Each structure stands twice: as structure tokens, then as C-alpha cells.
What we know:
mainly beta; 4-stranded antiparallel β-sheet; 1 helix
Amino acid sequence: MRVTHLTTHVLDAAAGAPASDVPVDLVDDRGVVVATGVTDADGRLSLGPDRLEPGTYALTFGTGEHFARTGTPTFYPRVTVSFSVVDDTHLHVPLLLSPFGYSTYRGS
């Protein structure tokens, strides 16, 4: 996997497994799509340019598509996580997912 400024990891807590083939969009604060991708078999994705300018961004995860493939009803068809970029530090934004809840944090 190519290492860029931003990575994510989606884990399906209900299944106890990585969430593969989840579409992810990276959007800046003007609504411009900066990058798109799909999580790999381990639920991981390296996304975007090698460097993000300081500002506010959002990752939108296509969680509904993941749960539809597994035949699992869900309350969240999409999860959007907003975050701030302030320097050149690598950003890791994981998503712990279940059909009726999710959590995230700044990883390393």
C-alpha cells in the first residue's frame, strides 16, 4: 500500500472483521472532492495527495454499501468524519463501525 499523508482503517465491530470494499471520499471545506478510494481486504486505505494543505476536511464512508453486501440492516448509510489539518504530520482516521453506531479517533 502506498503511504500518503492520510490513512484510514474501517473495522466492522458487529462482524469482528475488517470492512473491505467500503468506498471513501476525501472532501475539502469547499466541498471539492480531493480523493476517492475503496478499503482493501484488511479494511485499510491510503488516500489523497502526499500532502494536505492546512484546513478542514471530511472523510465520507459508504457504510450502507458495506452493510447491504453483508445483508445487515443499518441506520447509517454514510458516515462523515470532519477533521482539521494543521501541519505535515501523518493522519490516521480509523472508523469502528456497527449497524447502529460508530466511533472514530485520531490514530497514529
